[in-house]
Amino acid sequence: MPRADEYKPLLLTTTVRNPERYKTLLSVLLAYNGEILTNEIIDKVIFNMVSKKLYVPVFVSRTPRLKEQLIDEGTPFSVSDTQEIIENSPQNHKEAGFDKGWPSRFDTFFKMAMELGFLYYAMNEPIEFSDAGIKLVKSIENEFVHLENQVFLNAFVKYQRVNPFRRVKNENKPLILLLQTIKELSRIYGETSAGIARQEIPLILCWPDDDYTALLKQISEIREEYNFAPSGDYIYEICKKLLGVKGPNAEIRFKKINILREMPDEFIRKMRLTGLISIRGNGRFIDNNTLEAEKIEYVLSCYATSIQQFSTARECYDYMKVLDMSLISREAVVIASETEKERLFTKWVNTFELDTIKNELIIVCTPHKSSQNEILKFINEPARLEFLAALALKKTYPELSVVPNYVIDDEGLPISFAPGGGADIVCHDNIGNILFEVTLLTGVQQNIREMPAIERHLKEIAAPNSFSVMLCPRAHTDTLSYSAWLRDCKNITVSVVEIPHFAETLGIKTSARETYFAATTPGKKRTI
Fold this sequence. Notes:
Helices cover 47% and strands 8% of the residues. The chain is of the alpha+beta class. It is globular.
């Protein structure tokens, strides 16, 4: 007999913790759009995912020869190595409607994407990508990066806890509940409000319905009693009451660390994807992004409605897949004024110590290593690398004009990395421009996707005494060869600098031009 629906804390997914991975995983499956989903198709998809190192089973880390190959993320495993990995990684997992093993694992990879309306699939039925899913995959390309935030916003404004994909009784829309609560907190506390405190987020995750006034009352009572310092045990006890669980089994089913730490972190990361949420107070508060005030009002006026009732998963998907074109357009990208961007950038330059920036640069380009910084951990890796590189340059070379082009919230923190059409970071000294382009790519795609754009950006500024610098975790040989060809055949300088070497140069008393001009191989430089 199936278990009855019950109240549960919000867990969007554990399989895909990093939201950045959705578009990459979907890009693999998109090749089979329109085809009938069979175990044979699943085998092909899994093979591609493992080969491209998008999913790395435990067997790899236990096999030194294979583990060593993880260093170069851009180079896929060979056919024989991929087959060996899959054969030695049986998946003891079963999902309804799918065979036990890899077919069920396939479902865990893509189920949340279906719940968000990006695609629909079922065994022996055609794989169907929605326009939203196709746009999300499209956001991989530099000139369409803005689509990622907009597609996730389009999904989360409609996403509700109770739906055919979940066996839960909670009836609310998490993003809407968050926005409404923050708006009311701002009304009550006025200028002293910084939004909702991080330790209050578990209440939203466990809240049973869409009554934000009752949630607001609960938060106000906690603040009156404990200000902003309630104990974790106190919040945990409230959450267990909201979930209707008690006794020793409650702590087994709903672990304290999950409710108080892991689930809130995941929730914040995914809500940040909408572009509507800012981080304040060094990571202690979550607030509405005032740069998107007009969009927030639009969302609340259109989507703070009653919960939809769906009888089938297909019916739910058909509702979720519809694009609201008021949210999906280039015009929807809000850019802060140059004066405000400069002020906020200076604030963060003064906030972070150089040693912290150096350490975080190494962390962000090290596979499977996560930042523990209460601010940086909520910024996705590509945007975080741009942010850290810009801070590092200004911190080390204060005489240098440093203008980063990532998209920011009202705190000056990146929401997404720089859109296509210009350099990631534009620097200017008393001689000319230095364009910095940053990437986490390490394989052959590093040259294919980055170098032509870098060459184009340098040509477009058409300024004398200017050059470009590519920052990357590891320089691919194709990238170095292309850099040398540009220098020798076109008299264009694109220095290629590995991030570990870049971190080492920070703090050295010399000019940026002397440090990075014509550093066509890591660790080498040539002054002019």
